[in-house]
Amino acid sequence: MNYVPSWHHIPANPYNPHAWIIGDPEVGPDCWIGPFTILDGSGGLRIGQGCHISAGAQIYTHTTVNRVITEGTMPTDRAPTVIGDFVHIGAGAIILMGTTIGSRSYVGAGSVVTQYSEFPDGSAIIGNPAKSRDRDSRR
Question: CA 15 to CA 113: how far, in whole Å?
């Protein structure tokens, strides 16, 4: 287990002492989680094997928007997010709740994947809002 100083206020986790992991996400073997990432497992998060989540990436399974704008009369919205096997998520990328990203895909650095998006295996997911691009035309 990584050492986390008491003043840090981030729960200890087996991946990176500077990652914030909420809830109980399912993370497959051989995954690398970079520093300053957020993994929100409060609504159900599955990350497959062999994934690399780069520094500052954020993966969410909830939103408090409806709760706040209705002055607390609506609950927090939650939806599971699924990341397939051998997916690379670039630095600073944001993946919102209810998203499915297929295996052997990548999300470009700084991309914003909107909620309830679905991408098949082998996708190159780039931009804001993120769209799937042909991997062979990325050069």
Answer: 23
Closest CA to 95 of 85, 82, 84: 82
Tokens read off for 20? 């914030």
State the fold for domain 16-123.
UDP N-Acetylglucosamine Acyltransferase; domain 1 (2.160.10)
**For the whole model, what pTM was predicted?**
0.88
- Contact call for residues 75 and 55 (beta carbons, < 8 A): no
List the strands of the sheet with 38-41, edge to edge. 20-23, 38-41, 58-59, 94-95, 112-113
Residue-wise pLDDT tens digits, 40-75:
999 999 999 999 999 999 999 999 999 999 999 999
